[in-house]
């Protein structure tokens, strides 16, 4: 009989997962996905609208042959949640690929926060302009915090600006992170002159406009994961060189891509592998939707770290 699955809760996932180990694992997952050679199986996320409660449930399975990783994430994202509960909550199931038995059930919320920020950081590593002085974050929730943490660790920004719909939540964000943050009263003020812009909002209408974005800047567009939702206007979508995590998903899920009719230049995995160029001198935009391979690779890393910790020391 197979062993009973283990459970790894949020605090333990946060303890086991380090960006230093996560970044190369995600780069490899992005490259393997973008080879499109049949070795990675990842259907586009299946999303169930829960209209009555203004929410969605997404199911994200993947199998990666080379690392022999089989997992699925189940993620809920709701517009209105009770005070104190986060809008996104996720669980990852990790299977034994040889017989399909369940190995681990783990918190997926921390995984989602960290792997999404890490993928944006990878995109920025490859697509960033030469000058990196000002980082702008639009939104002040869970993803804003994880993005702040890895971006200020990895890049030498001199200034970080944040804008959120309410000044109160932007100020709460500024009080939660370590380091100086300039709270801006408008998105425009936050964006003007920034070298890197991150959009991490639950908006369904544009919050970022092309006319504000400095030519040559890099944008990580992380929100708006529904075909009718936008975070960017058409001007930005059409004038920037557009990179995505998955072309197939972008054409099915991203309102910014579908409704603007912008052309996709490349997948991030192709840039990491070196088969498509990083046009850093132009304005670049990475449209992130989130992929199951990122969750599967991260969950395997968490599980391997958990196993290593449990092993008796000789
Ligand atoms: N690409 C990816 O892999 C992933 C993307 N996401 C997306 O990232 C975004 C942020 O997620 P979290 O930080 O976890 O959510 P959160 O609920 O913690 O924060 C959402 C932020 O958006 C703001 N906001 C809500 N409605 C808005 C509107 N109409 N206009 C402007 N701002 C608005 C809120 O004030 C808050 O600052 C969401 O769109 C989410 O779906 C989340 C996980 C993975
Ligand atoms: O990849 C992910 O987990 C999500 N992307 C958008 C909402 C949740």
TrEMBL record:
GO terms for molecular function: pyrroline-2-carboxylate reductase activity; thiomorpholine-carboxylate dehydrogenase activity; thyroid hormone binding. Belongs to the ornithine cyclodeaminase/mu-crystallin family. It is an enzyme of class 1 (oxidoreductase). This is Ketimine reductase mu-crystallin. One of its GO terms (cellular component) is cytoplasm. It catalyses: (S)-cystathionine ketimine + NADPH + 2 H(+) = (3R,5S)-2,3,5,6,7-pentahydro-1,4-thiazepine-3,5-dicarboxylate + NADP(+); L-proline + NADP(+) = 1-pyrroline-2-carboxylate + NADPH + H(+); (S)-cystathionine ketimine + NADH + 2 H(+) = (3R,5S)-2,3,5,6,7-pentahydro-1,4-thiazepine-3,5-dicarboxylate + NAD(+); Delta(2)-thiazoline-2-carboxylate + NADPH + 2 H(+) = L-thiazolidine-2-carboxylate + NADP(+). The gene is crym. Homodimer. Binds the thyroid hormone triiodothyronine (T3); T3 binding inhibits enzymatic activity. One of its GO terms (biological process) is thyroid hormone metabolic process. Its EC number is 1.5.1.1, 1.5.1.25. It comes from Callorhinchus milii (Ghost shark).
């Amino acid at each position: 009989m197979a062993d009973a699955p283990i459970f790894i809760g949020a605090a333990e996932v946060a303890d086991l997962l380090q960006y230093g180990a996560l970044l190369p694992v995600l780069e490899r997952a992005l490259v393997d996905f973008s080879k499109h050679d049949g070795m990675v199986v990842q259907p586009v996320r299946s999303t169930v609208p829960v209209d009555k409660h203004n929410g969605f449930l997404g199911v994200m399975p993947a199998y990666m042959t080379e690392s022999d990783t089989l997992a699925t994430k189940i993620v809920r994202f709701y517009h209105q949640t009770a005070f104190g509960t986060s809008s996104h909550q996720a669980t990852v199931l990790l299977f034994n690929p040889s017989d399909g038995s369940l190995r681990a059930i783990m918190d997926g919320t921390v995984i989602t926060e960290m792997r999404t920020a890490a993928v944006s950081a990878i995109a920025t590593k490859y697509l960033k302009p030469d000058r990196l002085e000002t980082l702008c974050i639009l939104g002040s929730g869970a993803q804003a915090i994880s993005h702040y943490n890895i971006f200020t660790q990895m890049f030498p920004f001199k200034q970080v600006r944040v804008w959120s719909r309410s000044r109160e939540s932007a100020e709460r964000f500024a009080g939660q992170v370590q380091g100086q943050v300039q709270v801006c009263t408008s998105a425009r003020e936050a964006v003007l002159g920034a070298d890197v812009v991150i959009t991490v909002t639950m908006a369904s209408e544009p919050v970022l406009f092309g006319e504000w974005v400095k030519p040559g800047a890099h944008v990580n567009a992380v929100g708006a994961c529904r075909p009718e939702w936008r975070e960017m206007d058409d001007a930005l979508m059409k004038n920037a060189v557009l990179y995505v995590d998955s072309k197939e998903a972008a054409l099915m899920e991203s309102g910014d891509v579908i409704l603007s009719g912008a052309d996709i230049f490349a997948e991030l995995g192709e840039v990491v592998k070196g088969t498509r160029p990083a046009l850093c001198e132009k304005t670049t935009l990475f449209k992130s939707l989130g992929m199951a391979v990122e969750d599967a690779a991260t969950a395997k890393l968490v599980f391997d770290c958990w196993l290593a910790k449990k092993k008796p020391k000789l």
